[in-house]
Amino acid sequence: MKINNQIVLNGTFKTEQESSICFQNRAFLYGDSIFETIRVNNRNILFFEEHLTRLVSGMKILKYDIPDKFTIFRDKLKDEILSLLNRNKIFKSARVRITVFRKFGGFYTPETNEINYLISTLQLKAEKFILNTNGLQISVFNELKKPINKFSPYKTGNSLLYTLAGIYKTEIAVNDCLVLNEKNQIIEAVSSNLFLVINKTLITPPVSDGCINGIMRNEIITYAKLYDIPCIEHSVYENDLLSAEEIFLTNSINGIQWVVAYKDKRYFKRISDFLLRKINDVAV
Predict the structure, then answer these.
(1) Strand partners of residue 122
(2) Which is nearest to 255 in space by CA: 1, 37, 35, 56?
(3) Parts of the chain belonging to CATH 3.20.10.10
(4) What is the rounded radius of gyration, in angstroms, for the C-alpha atoms of the chain?
(5) For the domain 136-282, what is the CATH superfamily, name and number?
(6) Strand pairing partners for 176?
(7) In sequence order, which residues have a C-beta less than 8 Å from that of residue 282 and are 6 or more positions away?
(8) For 54-111, what is each residue's pLDDT tens digit?
(9) Cα(36)–Cα(54) distance, rounded to whole angstroms?
């Protein structure tokens, strides 16, 4: 990490050292926050409107007061992102995180619904989405189950389930883990949505099962329809993993990552490779 790396805090540029987390921050104290991670390729902020729309939807559920910069003046927020990338000397590809949290005050019951927001950046090596050469090996994390509720589709500060799933995959030496909901349905991976190919049909868990309402997930569904690939939203169980010809994971930063193995089952990467090439045609 660069010593002088900068962030945007409420529209003001600061160094990361100047903005260390205060112990009174509600995001730190109560997980009272929501965030988006966005990919930028050559100053093109990918799916910016979709990310902001999801962010605002989640902010409404958390009962935040929503500044105009997140709705009618989104270009100002976009300008801040691009200016921050310039200040951090990132001119090609980047991971941008927008974190929104309620202003300090109160204990569990807040004294205000006004928000602070923070934008941070991280340079990426690849200038476009790249399909992984070596397929991922995956397992299923079943120590904790994700509840299905109004927060399920969003990325909030309460991410302990994903943290523990990430620790679990490291402990058992696999590349990723699939997460279960309270009905023991497989819904997503640690930081990605899930797609299966069974009998040449794309299958992905519905948002109603508790998965993140992923931006790249929705793009994949759109591209599948565009290229006449049958695609359905349907609950997924372990038997479906064992019946699939192909499994891949999607998110806004990596695009598509294909899975080679679950237990003794092995998979192809035909549709994942095709879809990623089509997405790269426009994500430049």
Answers:
(1) 95
(2) 37
(3) 136-282
(4) 19
(5) D-amino Acid Aminotransferase, subunit A, domain 2 (3.20.10.10)
(6) 138
(7) none
(8) 999 999 999 999 999 999 999 999 999 999 999 999 999 999 999 999 999 999 999 9
(9) 8
